[in-house]
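Contributing new complexes? Match this layout with zinc ion.
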Amino acid sequence: MSDEVQRGPVPGSSDSNQDNDQWRRISARLVRWLPLILIGLIVGGQLLLGAFAGSQVPTVDYSQFKAEIEAGRLSRVEIGTDYLVGYAPDSSGGGALYRTARVDDPAFVPLLESQGVSFYAVPPQSPGILSSIIGWIFPIAIMLFLFRRLSRAAGGIGQDVLSIGKNRSKVVAEGETGVTFKDVAGADEAKAELEEVVDFLKNPARYAEIGGKIPKGVLLVGAPGTGKTLLARAVAGEAGVSFMRLSGSEFVEMFVGVGASRVRDLFKQARASSPSIVFIDELDAIGKSRAGGGVVGGNDEREQTLNQLLVEMDGFDARTGVIVIAATNRPEVLDPALLRPGRFDRQVLVDKPDLKGREEVLALHAENVKLDPNVDLSRVARATAGLAGADLANIVNEAALLAVRADRRLVRQEDFSEAIEKSIAGLSRKNRVLEEGERRIVAYHETGHALMAHFSPGADPVEKISIVPRGMGALGYTLQLPSEERFLRTKNELLGQIDVLLAGRAAEEIIFGDISTGAGNDLTRAAEIARRMITDYGMSDRFRNVYLPSRRGPSFLDDGGAVQREYAESTQTYVDEETARIIEERYEHVIATLREHTDLLESVTAELLKIEVIDRDRFAELVGAQAA
Ligand code: ADP
Ligand code: ZN
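Output block (do not edit by hand):
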C-alpha cells in the first residue's frame, strides 16, 4: 500500500515563489502607473523635439533677419505659422541659416519680393517624420523596453500587453537536442517505456500502416529534478526529431485568450517541424481539474487554455508525427479529461533513483571530473537516499568546486562528504535523507505490508517495495497491483486489505517492541474500509444486509465536508465499536501471522536495506525460496 504517499505541493517550490511574488507586486504597481509615465515621456519628448529643432538653426532677432534679407544673404524663406526660416543661396549650400519668430509686418512680403527672395508658407503643425519619431515613437520605444525588462523579471505579467497571442521567448524550439538515453542514468523503467515512443517517431509509416495504437501524449510523473525534462529531450534526440519546450505556468496569463492562442501557435509550430516532440513542463498549471476550481469563480483563462490543448491533441492523428510529452509531479490534480484515451493516456513514472540508480547518476556526472583513485562513489550513493538526479549532479559539481577551492587537482572522498552535507542541509526537512535508525524502521514496516500481502489470500500481488523516500513525507511504500481489473471485493478480500494496511505497524511492534507515527495513513484507510463494511456493505452482525446512509456535506474551503449521518446515535456508537473490534481482531491476526514468519521479515528487510527497491520477481524469489 502506498500508505505514506501524501498529496500536496512540492517542497522547495514555495521559497522561490516568494521572490517572484515580490516582483509581481512591484510590476503590477508599475503597470497601474503606466499611462502617467507614458504621457510624461511623450510630453518630455515633444519638448525635447522643440529644443532640438531650434538648436540646429541659430535664432536671431526679427530686425536682424530682415537685415540679412536686405543684405542679400538669403535666397529663400520658409514662412511658418509663428516662425520664419531663412536659407542661404544655392551657390553656398542652400542650408537654413537663420530662424526667427514671425512678426505681423505688412512690409515683409514686399521686402522679399524686392530682393528677389523666393518664399513659401508651411501649413500649420506638420511635424514631419523626424519629429514623429522623436516625439512619439521614441518615448514609446523606451517605455516598451523598460516594461519588457521588468516583465521578464516579474515572470510574465506585462509580456502579453506587448505581444498578445505571440509566444516568442515562450516556446523554446531546440531543434535536435543531441541528448540520448545514454545521458540519462538509471531510470531504466522509464526509458524502456519511452523506447516505444522513439520507435514510433522513427517509423511513423509502419505504425500508420498497421493501424496500431499510436501514442499521442505521454505523461511523465515524478518529483522535481528526477530528469523528466532530460528524458523528453533524450526521446527527441534518440528519434532525431525536433524538440519544443514550454512550461505550463507560462500559459496561464493575465488576459483571457492569450494562453489558448499560445497553445494554437505552439502546435502550429510543432506541425510545421514535424516529426517533433512538444514538451510541456508543469502540466498541472494548466491542467488542474476544472471541478476543483473552488467555490468562488474559477479561472476562465486556464480553462480556455486547457480546452485549446484538448482540441489540439484531438485534432492530430498518427500521420501528423507530433507527440506531446508532459511532466507533472501532481498527477492527482489533473483534469480527468487530460487522461482520457487519445490524450495523455500513457503515464510513465520517473521515480527518484534507488541505490544503483544513484551510483549511475553520480558516475555519469563524474565522467568529466578528475577523481582521486580512492573515491568510492557507491559510498556517496549510500549516503544520498531520497535525493533526485539533479541533487546528485549538484553534489558532484559542488565536490569539484571544493577541491578547486582547496587548490587540489583531484576530487577526494572528503569533498563529496562535505558536498553531501551542504546539499542535505539545504533541503527541506521533509525531503531529507533518512538516518539509519529511521531507515530500519521504514524497512521493517514496508516488509510487513509486503509479507502480509503475500500471505493474505486474495490480496493483490506485491509489485514493488521501496524505501527510497518519495518527497513530502513519503518515507517508503509498498505497491500492490491488482492482477486484473476488479469491480467486486468479497468480505474476505476486504479483511485482507485491512490486514495488509495494519501489517506495517505490526512489524514495527514485533521487531522493536515500539510503534511509530509512520503508520498514520495506514490506520486511516484501514478504519475507513472497516467502517464501510458496516455502513455501506451491510457486513456486520447487527445490521446484516442493512445500508446505513451517510453522506458528505458540501465541501467548503477544503474542509472536505462534514459527514452527515442519517441514522440513530446508538447506531453510530455501534458502528464505532464494531469498527474498533474488527481492527483489533485483524491486528491480532496480523501479529500472529508475521510472528510465524519472522525469518522472512528479517531476510526481506535485510535485502531491502541493501538494495532499497525490491521488485516483484525478486520478492517472489525471496519469499518463495524460504516458504517452500
Ligand atoms: P525535472 O524535469 O524532472 O525537474 P530535469 O530533467 O530538469 O528534472 O533534471 C535536471 C538535471 O538533473 C538534468 O539536467 C541532469 O543534469 C540532472 N539529472 C536528473 N536526473 C538525471 C538522470 N537520471 N541522469 C543524469 N542526470 C540527471
Ligand atoms: Zn505503512
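Reviewers usually confirm one structural detail per submission. For this one: The chain has five domains: 22-55+135-164, 57-121, 170-291+300-349, 355-424, 436-623.
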